[in-house]
Each structure stands twice: as structure tokens, then as C-alpha cells.
Amino acid sequence: MGRFTFQAPSNILFEPGASRKIDELVAGYGARRVMLVTDKGVRGAGLTGGAEASLAVAGIEVSVFDDVVADPPSHVVEAAVAASQANDIELVLSIGGGSALDTAKLVAYLAKTQDRLDDIYGVGLAKGKRLPLLLAPTTAGTGSEVTPIAIVTTPTTEKKGVVSPVLIPDWAILDPELTLGLPAPVTAATGIDAMVHAIEAYTSKVRKNPMSDQLARQALGLLSANIRRACQNGADLAARSQMLLGSMLAGMAFANAPVAAVHALAYPIGAIFHVPHGLSNALVLRHVLEFNLPAAEALYAELAELVRPGLHATSQAERARAFIDEMASIGRDCQVPASLSAVGIGRDDLKKLAEDAMKQTRLLVNNPRELTLDDAYAIYSAAFDDGSNRSVQAPHG
Prior knowledge:
By secondary structure, the chain is α/β, with parallel strands linked by helices. It is built from 14 helices and nine strands.
């Protein structure tokens, strides 16, 4: 067994209604001025109300930054940092989706240091101290509440990551009540995103390790068993709880065994066409799995019974094929769009997507099979016409 490191949040609170107890957690840091980082949709839906009310009763001053948008542009992050400094913030709290949580991580760090955002893109470049950081997700998808990663869209529409253990929060607050009533399309896309985290962590070429493996397997079992229920009935608290737990476990897995080509090919779709991140992953997932099959067959076979319990396939090849088919079936059953063309991407756009995907070297190095520009173009081409039936005939040898 090779050497490995494993990092995780200091504290995790998992409980329905947990967001209404945030004042107790804040009090533990002696903070009197808190910035709440969220977006207008989440706040307008009342999802921050419980936390805001509890903080008000406790006499804690809350400055709200709710200008976060999907795939947060760098200028939004910088505006949030400026607001935190102007208000002399002592603690950063975020309630929202992955974009809000990622923004909050960077606010907590940049508000405390002299670093500029442009200087910390990459792995391990954020080395200073940060403000106390509490994160509460409102979707079961990104796992950002337990990862050391924040993703930003640059002015050139490229997605870049800041990766540093400094960004791991002090508290991950999982309140499944915050996910009740999430629309089925969002539930499906974010749920598949979480499943991709588990799959790519399990097959990661560079830092795969026994602890991330166990987390990925547990996550994939929970997510696959509950995603259809959660899509069919948004008020199913049991299914929502299992999805939120699965998402967090998958986040812990890929925080230590990083994601790969699915995310690398999804990032340009989101950055250029503003397709939600989870849906971007879903659109290319099957075709990346097909491409990776020659290198990852044994690992896919190991995951097959987690997503299809009672599987009767006997050979490794049959189990691996069943795994890919079941992932496609989940997408169909949850009514996820099946092709790039269905989300407004044209065939003439595929070359640009492939070129931008190849810039994601931080991710591609983790892929179980080496991927070239021609391979990326072939995967996008397969995903363009039909996201469920065509297999990738990539030229890569």
C-alpha cells in the first residue's frame, strides 16, 4: 500500500433544522460581525431565514452578500472580499449551493491575507490564515462544504481552481430541511454531480487511497438508492437526508482523490454556455465512462452492484458494462437532458470546448486513461447528438 494523506473538516453537524442552530456555532468563535454569503434565489426562498433569525436574537451583526451567481466570476468574489473588509467581518458563513460556498471560502481567506485572487489559482498557493468559516449546503451535489477547493470563472471564461487545505471549513453544517422542495431538474443534476465525485475519486489515478475508496463507495450507494425518490418527491425528508449525506461523503472522497476527465470536460460547458455544473457533468458522463472503460473496467465492475443491487452479471466486463448502463438509466429516469444540442450547444462549438478542456491539466492528470485533444473532441461529438446511446470511438490508442 502506498503512502497517502487524508484531510477533512474539523467538525460536521448533520441534523434536520441544524441551520437554526448556527448562532451557537458562531458564539464559539466569539464573533460579533458575520458575513452571510449566499445568492438572491436562496435567500428569497427563505432558506437563510432560520440562521439569520437565530443570529439576530443572539445580537450578532450580519452583513449579507447575496450577489453570488452560478460559476462565480472573479469580480463577484473580489466584490465580496471588499465588502467583508469594509465591514470588518470576523467570521464568514455561507448558506447556498456550491457557487456560494466556494465564494465564501475565498472571502474567508482573502479578507485575512494580502494575497490577490490571481496569485492563488492552482494547488497549495494559498498558505496564509483565514477567518473562521461555516458552510451549509442547500443542494446535495457539490460537496463543497467539506473540500479544500474553490472554483472561479476568469474574465476569459476559463474555470480555475484554488486548492488548499486552508479552505477546508471549520464547520460543515448539513441540514436536509434546506434541500426540501428543490426542483427535480436541480435535484437530478446536483445528485449526478455528487455521483460523479464518487466515481472519479474511486478511479482517480494519482491519489486514490483506501479511505477515499470507502467514502466513495458509501456515497455512491446512498446516492444511487435515493436519487430517483428525491426527484419524484421533493418533500421526502428521508431521501433528501440520504442524498445530502451521500454528497458530503463524495465530497470528502474527491477532496483527497481528485476528480478527472468528466469534470475537465464539464467545466468549459459551464464557463462558456452557463450550463449548471451538475448538468454539464451529466451531459458528458456516459461518454467519458465509455472512453475510460479500457483502463477502468475492473474498478467500474467493483462499483456495479452499488448502483444496481442484486446484479447477476458474472464477468468483470459484464459488471463494468452494467455500471455504465445504470448510470445512463439514472439520467433517463431523472429526465436529465440527453445531449449537448439539447442545451443549446452547436456542433461548431465543439472544437472550442475541446481546446478549453485540455487546459484543465490539474484534473486530466488524474484520469485513468490519458486523454488527448482528439479524444476530447470525440467525446463531445458523441455527447452532442445523443447522451445515452452512442459510444465514443476515440482515436486515442
